[in-house]
Amino acid sequence: MPISPPLQRIISLFAITPGELLTVAVATIGGMGFVWLHIPGGAISGAVISVALLSLTGQAHGLGPLLRVTGLCMVGVAVGAIVGPDTFSNMLAYPFSIAAMALCVVTMTAVATFVWMYLLKWPFSSALLASVPGSMSYIVAVSITMGKDAARIAVVQMSRVVFLVTLLPLIVAWDMRGRSLGSIEVHYDPLIVTLLVLAFGIAGGWVLEKLGSTGGFLLGGMIVSGLAHFMGWAPGRSPDWVMNAGQIIVGAWTGSRFADFDWKLFWRIAYGTALAVGSTLAISIGFAAFMSWMLNVPFGAALIGYSPGGLEAMVVLALAMNVDPVFVAAHHFARYFIINASLPFIIPKLLKMEEAARIKPTETSGG
After folding, report:
1. Where are the domains positioned within the chain?
2. pLDDT-derived band of residue 175, with 50, 70 and 90 as boundaries?
3. Which of the residues 72, 180, 288, 361 could staple to 303 if both were Cys, CB 3.0 to 4.6 A apart?
4. What is d(CA 45, CA 30) in angstroms, rounded to the nearest whole number?
5. Comparing C-alpha atoms, which of 313, 249, 268, 265 is closest to residue 48?
6. Which of 15, 75, 335, 23 has the alpha carbon at shortest distance from 215?
């Protein structure tokens, strides 16, 4: 009995091929290996690297809709879980510092975008995504949902985080010089709450996708999770497996794109990354030193709070280094909120501008 076309579409939507399973399995081994080595943001970095290596053999496969939607929503749910009933009150406790942090973000992004556009001739939208000091998993996810060169952007974003989590602990350890704020006890959401938030996040993401939102499932998971944690319906933090699984899936999706990656450009990317990350780190050090003096907070805490690292990586680093987690989390959440509230509006306009710029010379020459 032949299968009707609508049923075929439903089957293809939920089907997972053996090639996808192999890709995710390799990504899981690489991602969890990096997690085992206690590398902040290691799940996505390890997944991207392992699948990129798999792509050299021709065995890496792109992921279907089911895995992509699940991975994007998991990342959104895990990131949204940083919101709590006291999150915005914590942000309001540092109004001047948060305002300075926003200026710092704009300055860092502008300088790094200049490096990629004018020294390496990248398009504006790709240069911006490579330069935004946001959550690595969010930026990479946005780039692949936009159809931009996710492989190059992933290399830059991973290099930035690896560079920062390697250097910052040395600076913070020097600044702390034996001082400690004690350990932080973490409470996790119950399994049923986590599954409900994921389900509603996917539903919300579907609505946003239908409305034309870029990265709708990622944003849907983040909004639903943030609302649930802010209202107190979800009492703790999303379990680590949610973020790890989401990052591994997104990393597998990104790593599979290295099949067409021009490895001859790698050293040019490394050169640009060194310039971009070096300049943004210098800017963050300047802002951190000034705010440390103004607010009388430890320089190490201010530096992690103002650093251009990913939200999850910097909060993990703050906890690991026993640096004031409230100060760091408030600043990184505010930075993340500013970036993610503006990118869905900025990126589509940039894409339209770039498209118009490509069409305009043809129209002119035809006249």
Report:
1. 21-58+71-355
2. low
3. 288
4. 8
5. 249
6. 75
